[in-house]
Amino acid sequence: MIETIKFGPLKWSHIVRPTEEDLQALKDHYHFHPLDIEDCRSVVNLRPKIDVYDDYYFLILHFPSFDTTQTFVDTKEIKVFWGKDFLITIGKSHWLVKDMFSQEKAKALAGKRMEVGSSDILLYNILERLMLETQNLTEKVEKDVDGCGKALFGKKAEKTIEKISITRKNVVLLNTMFRPQLQLFNKLQSGAIEGFAENMEDYWGNILDYYQKIWDMVEDCGELIKGYSNTFDSLQVNRTNEVIKILTLISSILLPLTFIASLYGMNINLPIQDHPESFLIVTFIMAVIAIGMLVYFKIRRWM
Fold it and tell me: Is the pTM above the cut of 0.85?
C-alpha cells in the first residue's frame, strides 16, 4: 500500500513491502525506468548505488540495524525515488524510515507537519536521522570491541571466543556495508549529483561528515578486534603449551620411576631384593632420581 504525506506541492510516499500493483502504479504515474522497478522487486539486498535520470534519481542505500536479539547486525535496505516535487521511499520491513514516516503522518494530521521547502531537504532530514541511528549503533559495537579487550585475560575462554566472534562478524558487516557508499555520498557533497535545490552542498557535507566519522569508527574497531583476536589466539596457544609442558615434565619424571617399579615387580632375581630394607632403598633411589630430574629441569629453565 502506498501511503503519502503532502508538504504543499511536495509529496512523500512510503511503501513497506511493494506489491505488483504498487510497482505498476509507480511505473504508470511517474514513468520510472523498468530496471529501477525491477530492482524494487528484488528480495535480496542489492549493491548501493545512485542512478541519474533527467527528472529523478534512484538510490539504493544500506544502513545497519540489530536483529531481534540485539546481538547481530543486519543490513536494512532502503530504495528512494527522488524527484523535484516527490520523494518515494521503499523498504522491506517496518524500520526507522517507516517509524519516521508514521511520526510525520501523525504530525500532519495534527497540523504540525515538518517544514520542508524541497525534496532535497526532505531527503536530507531522512538521511540525517538514519546517520544518527547508525552512529548510535556503531558506538554500541565500539563498546562491544572494548569489552572484548577487557575479556582477553579472563578465565572463561568459550565466552570470550563467542564474544570476539560475534563482534568481529558485526564489524566486518559494517565495513562491507559502508565501503561502497562512501563514494556515493562524496558525489552528493562535491556537487557531482546536483539535486533539485540550490546551496545544498553544506547539508550534504554534513551527511558526509557523519558518514566519515562512522567509517573511521568502524575502521578503528576492525583493527582493534583483529588485534584482540590475534592476541587471544596467542594467549590460548601459550596456555596450551604451558599445560603440555607441565604434562611432559611430569611424564619425564614418572617414566624412570615407572621403569624401576615395573622392574622390581617382575618375578626374577634382582639386586638387593633380599635385603631387609630393600623397599626403603628402592624408594630412596626413586626419590633421588625424581629430585635430580627436577633440579636438572630447573637449571635448564624448563620449569
Answer: no
